[in-house]
Amino acid sequence: DLYRKVFVFRNDPSDAYVVLPLSPEQPLLNFTLCLRSYTDLTRPHSLFSYATKAQDNEILLFKPRPDEYRFYVGGKFVTFRVPESRRDWEHVCAGWESSTGMAEFWLDGKPWPRKGLQRGYAVGPEAAVLLGQEQDAFGGGFDLYNSFSGELADVYLWDTVLSPDRMRAAFQSLRLPPALLAWSSLSYSITGDVVVKPRLR
Question: What PANTHER family does its record include (predicted)?
Fold first, then answer.
């Protein structure tokens, strides 16, 4: 249980990453991804990378610059412009629904305008799921200048789009429904210079 703990990615740029074992039994037609990050990076960096053998950016949450998030599904992305970080923790949730192609984005418990993305698509199972690097090939192909440096916590992935109340509950670290990946019961393996430490605040 990683409650009140964080992954600290200490180097910039970094070749380190955290692998999250995940094997959904069938393709994902809906999902919500949430996580919390704390960094002073201004260069592009990857927060969450879910690759299959067919598509390296099957699910990707990427921050190309301090005032923008990119949310990828099946290799296509939508952009959400955000206020430039105040050098504080940022909590992000990204939800996607295949039937409508609706992409949701929540920052610190507040929704951004929804956008259309990959209607009718199915996210493949048998994935390599990594924190801290962007995969350009299944389980590898990293560009160190897209690596994450800083602190990551509260990583969750559900196979549904959470309700607005649940999105806010995720931001507040309240009780959450069972998830495919849950910070409260996370299996993980670390490669390189990543340290698990108590959260400072």
Answer: C-REACTIVE PROTEIN (PTHR45869:SF7), C-REACTIVE PROTEIN-RELATED (PTHR45869)
Q: Who contacts 200 (Cβ-Cβ below 8 Å, separation ≥6)?
A: none
Paired sense of beta strands 102-107 and 110-111, if any = antiparallel
Tell me how far apart the alpha carbons of residues 103 and 62 are, in angstroms, rounded to a whole number: 15
Which stretches in the chain have pLDDT values below 70? none
Rg, C-alpha atoms of the chain: 15
Of 32, 52, 55, which is closest to residue 156 (Cα–Cα)? 32
* pLDDT computed for residue 28 by the predictor: 96
pLDDT at 172: 96
Cα(35)–Cα(171) distance, integer angstroms: 9
CA–CA dist 138, 92 (Å, integer): 25
CA distance 30 to 52: 17
- Domains recognised in the chain with CATH numbers: 5-198 (2.60.120.200)
Encode 39-62: b = buried (16+ Cβ within 10 Å), e = exposed. Answer: bebeebbbbbbbbbeebbbbbbbb
Query: Can you point out the beta strands (E) in 17-99?
Result: 17-19, 30-38, 45-51, 59-65, 68-73, 76-81, 90-97
- Could you tell me which residues are beta bridge partners of residue 34? 93, 156
**C-alpha pair distances (Å), 132 with each of 12, 54, 63, 88, 97:** 11, 21, 12, 18, 25
